[in-house]
Amino acid sequence: xxKRSKIFSIANQKGGVxxxxxxxxxxxxxxxxxxxxxLIIDLDAQGNASHGLGIQKPTDAVYSILVKGTDIxxxxxxxxxxxxxxxxxxxxxxxxxxxxxxxxxQQNAKFxxxxxxxxxxxxxxxxxxxxxxxxxxxLLQMSAVIMSDYIICPIVPKLFALEGLSEMLATYAxxxxxxxxxxxxxxxxxxxxxxxxxxxxxxxxxxxSIKMLGGDxxxxxxxxxIDVKVEEGYERGQTIFEYxxxxxxxxxxxxxxxxxxxxxxxxxxxxxxxxxxxxL
Length: 280
Hints:
- By secondary structure, this protein is of the alpha/beta class.
- It has helices at residues 19-32, 48-52, 61-66, 72-75, 94-105, 112-123, 139-147, 159-176, 200-212, 228-235, 240-243, 248-251, 269-278, and strands at residues 6-10, 38-42, 77-80, 83-86, 128-132, 150-155, 186-192.
- A 7-stranded mixed beta sheet has the order 3-4-2-5-1-6-7, with helices on both faces.
- It is globular and about 55 Å long.
C-alpha cells in the first residue's frame, strides 16, 4: 500500500530559531486552508507547540505513549478542526525520556517513534505530520528524524543558529549512513525566520548557510520575513494565518525582480513553504 502521509521533522539543535512556530504554522495552514488531516507531535518538554495553539496545560502524552504504552487515542487532543496534537509536558527532560526509551526498546530505541506512531498515522488517514523536535541532539531527536520523510532545519540570522545547523547536518549525515535504515529522510531545506533583507548580517548568515550545504543554494528555502505579528499571535494561542493572514510572515514580501513567487504573488512567508510542500 502506498504511504499516504508526509512526515516532517522541524529540527535544529539550538533553541530560539522559530522551530515551534514553523511546526504549528504549517500544520494549522494545511488543516484550515487545505482541509487536510494533520497531526503534530510535540517532543519538546517545554510544550511550546501546545501553548502556541492555545493549549495551556499540556500533559506529557508523548511519555505516556512511548514508555507506558498508552493507546494514542486516549491522550490525543484536537487542537483545531482537522488538526490533532500529541502533547509534551514539563515533568521530564529529553535525557530522562531517552533513558526510558533505551530501557523499553533496547536496541530498537532509535526506532521508538516509528514503532509507536507509524501504524496509527496511516490507519487514521493523516496526510501531514509535523514533529516539533527537542532543541538538542539526542535519542529523541534522532528517532524523530528517522521516522520522518523530510527534515526542515529552521534558523534565524544569529551565529548560534548556524552552529545548530552545522550540528544538525552532522546528525543527518550519520543517520542516512545507518545500514538498518531502509528509506533515509530527505533534507528538505534550511528555513530562515526573522529575515530582514535590508540587513547585511542576514545576507552573511545566508551565505554561510549555503557554504555549510556544500554550495547548494537550492536547499535554502524562501525566508520568513521578520514580523511582530508572529509573537502577538503566539501570545493569543493563534498562528500567523489565524491572527494576521495578510502579514509578511504569512504571505511574504513583494519582489518584482524575477524571483520565484508564491501563490499570493510574493516571495517567502509560510505560504511559500506550504506551496512547496503541496507540490511534493
